[in-house]
Amino acid sequence: MINEEIQKQISKGKMLPLMEEFYTIQGEGFHTGKAAYFIRIGGCDVGCHWCDVKESWNANLHPPTNTDNIVNNVIKYANTVVVTGGEPLMWSLDFITSQLKKNNIRTHIETSGAYQLSGEWDWICLSPKKTKLPLEPIYLKTNELKVIIYNKNDFKFAVEQASKVSDTCELYLQPEWSNKEKMTPLIVDFVMKNPQWKISLQTHKYLNIP
């Protein structure tokens, strides 16, 4: 049971339910191949059946961690941080991004957009899910739209989502890992016919890194 004082710190974003943190090479999307420090925050109710980090869903399994300690760990390794989850926007991210910015750290987030945007971001990767759609205000702030392709119906969903973002937003389709052999050829064909889109692969899994 989390006591009242810890709950107060969590509500201010001064503590976060940290699942894991690590320094690695980004494996997906626009920034593939770049070094970054990843902060994975526990808690998610979007419920993608193919999620590869379902252990992140229950925030109670991940200890409330002092945000200043997380920031200090970032500073030791990297000049870019990626905040992900779970669904990181379930928590207030204003404090952590303000502290990162004070230390000249570039801030990136990957989110489903299902919760109100908080924090100050240099790069927003929106990965929308049908089970809980993004809130409208995030679309025009999005730098990168990354849609996971699990079946053929997901192409229609991707086009619908792309109609809501700005003209400068980078568009990516990514095959869901367990179904990549079937869907990758369809994604290749789609991108060749619709060159405003690009293909994102989970290169970190091919490289066998976190």
TrEMBL record:
Which GO biological process entries does UniProt record here?
A: tRNA queuosine(34) biosynthetic process
What EC number(s) does its UniProt record assign? 4.3.99.3
Q: How is the cofactor bound?
A: Binds 1 [4Fe-4S] cluster. The cluster is coordinated with 3 cysteines and an exchangeable S-adenosyl-L-methionine. Binds 1 S-adenosyl-L-methionine per subunit.
Flavoprotein listed as a keyword: no
InterPro entries recorded for this chain? 7-CO-7-deazaguanine_synth-like, Aldolase_TIM, rSAM, rSAM_sf
Residues that coordinate or bind S-adenosyl-L-methionine: 50-52, 86, 127-129
EC class, as a word, reads lyase
Select a single GO molecular function from the record's annotations and give it: carbon-nitrogen lyase activity
Annotated residues for binding of substrate = 25-27, 40, 84, 210
Pathway listed for it is: Purine metabolism; 7-cyano-7-deazaguanine biosynthesis
Give every Radical SAM core domain span.
40-113
Q: Note the Pfam families from the entry.
A: Radical_SAM
* Keywords noted in UniProt: 4Fe-4S, Iron, Iron-sulfur, Lyase, Magnesium, Metal-binding, Queuosine biosynthesis, S-adenosyl-L-methionine
The reaction(s) catalysed by this protein are:
6-carboxy-5,6,7,8-tetrahydropterin + H(+) = 7-carboxy-7-carbaguanine + NH4(+)
Annotated coiled-coil segments of the chain:
none
What cofactor does this chain's UniProt record say it requires? [4Fe-4S] cluster; S-adenosyl-L-methionine; Mg(2+)
Q: Where does [4Fe-4S] cluster bind?
A: 44, 48, 51
Q: Looking at the keywords, is S-adenosyl-L-methionine present?
A: yes
Determine the domain of life of the protein's source: Bacteria
Q: What does this protein do?
A: Catalyzes the complex heterocyclic radical-mediated conversion of 6-carboxy-5,6,7,8-tetrahydropterin (CPH4) to 7-carboxy-7-deazaguanine (CDG), a step common to the biosynthetic pathways of all 7-deazapurine-containing compounds.
Family per similarity comment: Belongs to the radical SAM superfamily. 7-carboxy-7-deazaguanine synthase family.
Q: How does it assemble?
A: Homodimer.
Quote the HAMAP family the UniProt record gives: QueE
**Which protein are we looking at?**
7-carboxy-7-deazaguanine synthase
Q: Which organism is it from?
A: Lutibacter flavus
Name the encoding gene, please.
queE
